[in-house]
Amino acid sequence: MNDAWNMSTPQSVEEVYTELLDRAPENKMEPRLDAVQRAVDILGNPEKSAPVIHITGTNGKTSTARMVESLLLAHDLRVGRYTSPHLEKVTERISLDGRPVADETFVRIYGEIAPYLQLVDTELSEQGEPGLTFFEVLTVLAFAVFADEPVDVMVLEVGIGGSWDATNVADAAVSIVTPVDLDHTEMLGDTLQEIALEKAGIIKPGGFLISAAQDPVVAQILLERAQEIGAQFRFEGVEFGVRGRTIAVGGQIIAVQGLAAEYIDLMLPLFGEHQAENAALAIAAVEALLGGGDKPLNQELLVTGLGAVTSPGRLELARKAPPVLLDAAHNPHGLKASARAVRESFTFAKLNLVVGILREKDVETMLRTLAEEYSEYELELWCSHSRSPRAIAPEELAEIAADMGFDEDMVHAQDRLDDAIASAIQDAADRQEFDGAVLITGSVTVVGEARALLGL
């Protein structure tokens, strides 16, 4: 039996979080569904308490989930959103109507389901298997919260992969697949084909697939999965997509061809082509859920929903003078997308990067990508780290950066993240004519801590 269950019942979010971490590190996943299925069965199947929009892919999942949520809220629906990881507080992962679940609700529901989770832990132990993991328990908790409220729609983001992800005990009415690229290769496989097969697992019989434009190998796998199980399917660039974009103050104005109609003059308060494409995915998914893909959405509600979207830590402008941007890109694909958005949306001559990366990531490729994508700027790099035990030491990161294309004289190792941020901001502020900017990136944990340090 897990030692955590020998503790007294947690009385605060922090105590619940500590108990969850005692089970396994946040990034520890078990390639199984049966344990989570057993847990939700014992609890009366809360995962079936509302229709589900399920989201997988390599990047853009959280932003797309937040857009879907905002569009559904504009239609006066109660929405439960489950995303990961969190930036600052674990309750961010379980949101009700756009806000993190209340601390009291989080702790109360956890206390109510704990005895049932203990039963599952005992059964797993008897079978020689590890107990429920951090992510498995948190997923079950999310389902229980959403059933308790109750919500009208659940929007679920996959943790890793799809087929055996804990969220996949739910049967999605609509499955969204954002662009698929190489990531988490140690768990999902080191080819696009292997990764796509895992992610295709969230498509369910009788459901509706909404896919981003994909590499042909990925698209073929998704198409074959949908056809095999009788799911409808629509692909960006074929049946729907972005028809136009204009840069605007605080974001962009977009036109989107949806499944049932074309929608114009939509203000999206986020930067970058990738966010416009995420918006097209969200619109198509909501069309599929609310009208089977045949009924146009109300333009006024669409404008309201998209206009209210926020995506903290995703190319977020934290300060304007000098510009300080926060971006939780944590793989090469994400870094390239954000770099395109930075070049398109901002004008400055020097860019100060504050970077922290977790050890399990493709560190060398990420640093090389940063050096290449921002080569047009005068670059200076502050290597730092978050409090995560998985973070690479700043000195080691600096050594790698010097080998990946950064000028060694412009690379600094700073042990304290607050000092790194302060130095980068001060240097940018000292530039004449406001041509210096700061970008804090590399991991979600670094961006989360940066948000707190900057008072966001």
Stated plainly, the CATH topology of the largest domain is called UDP-N-acetylmuramoyl-L-alanine:D-glutamate ligase
Number of strands: 17
Rounded mean pLDDT is: 94
Number of domains: 2
Helix and strand topology:
Layout: H1 13-23, H2 34-42, E1 52-56, H3 61-74, E2 79-82, E3 94-96, E4 99-100, H4 103-126, H5 134-148, E5 153-157, E6 174-177, H6 185-188, H7 192-199, E7 208-211, H8 216-229, E8 232-235, E9 241-248, E10 251-257, E11 262-268, H9 273-291, H10 299-307, E12 316-320, E13 323-327, H11 332-345, E14 350-355, H12 363-373, E15 378-383, H13 394-403, E16 411-413, H14 417-429, E17 436-441, H15 444-453
Parallel strand pairs: 1-5, 1-6, 2-5, 6-7, 7-8, 13-17, 14-15, 14-17, 15-16
Antiparallel strand pairs: 2-3, 3-4, 9-10, 10-11, 12-13
